[in-house]
Write a structure and sequence with these properties.
The chain has 94 residues and is an alpha+beta fold. It is 51% helix and 24% strand. It has a 3-stranded antiparallel beta sheet with strand order 1-3-2.
């Protein structure tokens, strides 16, 4: 059984210093066999929710060309609180 998508995003961020959201989305697409605008928007919402909960932090932003449009993109890192919650829930070894 696969990890839920928010859990996957947290684990992916725990394995690196930081990542741009487009790289996180690309990794998630590969892991879950996803494609399309709906899935991409769903993952962006998940990243917004994780950020609003304080589990991840936006550390940088840029305007980038994506599918023919300018789009604001964020670079994320796992927060200390997020790391603690991952340990508490068993997503990360303490």
């Amino acid at each position: 059984m696969k990890l839920h998508q928010k859990g996957f995003l947290l684990v992916a961020l725990s394995q690196v210093t930081n990542l741009w959201e487009q790289a996180l989305i690309a990794q998630t697409f590969v892991e879950y066999g996803l494609a399309g605008a709906y899935s991409e928007k769903t993952l962006r919402i998940a990243l917004d929710e994780l950020s609003a909960a304080g589990l991840i932090t936006r550390i940088d932003q840029k305007l980038a060309q994506h599918q023919g449009q300018q789009q604001l993109q964020f670079r994320y890192q796992l927060s200390d609180f997020g790391r603690l919650r991952m340990i508490d829930t068993g997503l990360l070894a303490g």
